[in-house]
Amino acid sequence: RDMIIYSGGTLKTSFPESAELVSTLPGMDRKTVNLKKAMDDDPGHNLPVGLNDRLVVRNMPKDKGPVFGHATLSGEVLFPGQYPITKGERLLSVIERAGGYTAPAYPRGAVFTKERLRKIQQSIFDEVAACIEREHLAKNKHKDATQRLLEQIKTFKCAGRIQVSVTGLDVQRDKGFDIELEDGDTFHVPPLSDAVRIAGAVRKPGLYEHDGQSAYRDYVKAAGGYGSIADEASVFVVKADGGTRY
User: Fold this and answer.
1) How many Cα neighbours within 13 Å face the side chain of 156?
2) Backbone torsions φ then ψ of 55, nearest 5 degrees
3) Cross-strand partners of 31
């Protein structure tokens, strides 16, 4: 660590995970050290050095560039914005760089999207629309209803959302969802909501107060009950994390 400090620190293009400490003593002993851990005074990496020892710091490999792309954090993080990311960088690293969550944050409801996944989803929807237009409309069966469905599909924009299981405000404890980032990824953290949205075939769709005790049937009742065309056997609940319960 002292050698790094005395030399003015490492460059942005330096590879911090693997440097080589070469001894000038007989035998030319070589040790691999992690510079990040050395700077944190980890005794396994902040090794003692002898006279004329050399510390060889390599440049970042091309596939781990200095800047690989950008990820955007928004909502209830301390410093929302667009962050440059390096190859292999993971989500928790950027959340920590953004200062972590704010007090009103509800990480369980976070929305994580990937541009690559969005493009795949949109391609699938476009293929479905083309199939409907080619097969169903050509047969002239239920043409009006099919045309309406086709128009809805064509205007639908996929989000590319990935369900993540965030347990709470402690960033370090959520290693289970520490996903590797790609250029264009977004992570939005909403504030804690006190409402439940009821949609579909009920008499009074809308937002209703969440009391922490009611079941979904209670909210259906609050919304005036099922409508005449409701399929009660197919009711489902979309949780805040994007997961679905039937």
Assistant:
1) 18
2) -110, 115
3) 21
- Judge whether 70 and 33 are in contact, CB under 8 Å: no
Q: Are 78 and 56 in contact (CB under 8 A)?
A: no
Are the C-beta atoms of residues 29 and 20 closer than 8 Å to each other?
A: no
Global pTM exceeds 0.85: no
Distances (CA, A) of 162 to 71, 118, 123, 159, 188: 15, 10, 17, 9, 12
Convert the pLDDT of each residue in 168-199 to its tens digit: 666 666 666 778 899 999 999 999 888 899 98
The tokens describing 45, both together, are 């990496």
> 97-141: per-residue pLDDT in tens?
888 889 899 988 889 999 888 888 888 878 877 777 777 666 665
Q: Residue 224: pLDDT band by 50, 70, 90 thresholds?
A: very high
Pick from 198, 171, 202, 194: which is nearest to 78 by CA? 171
Quote the CA–CA distance of 186 and 74 in Å, as a whole number. Answer: 8
CA dist 80 and 86 (Å) reads 18
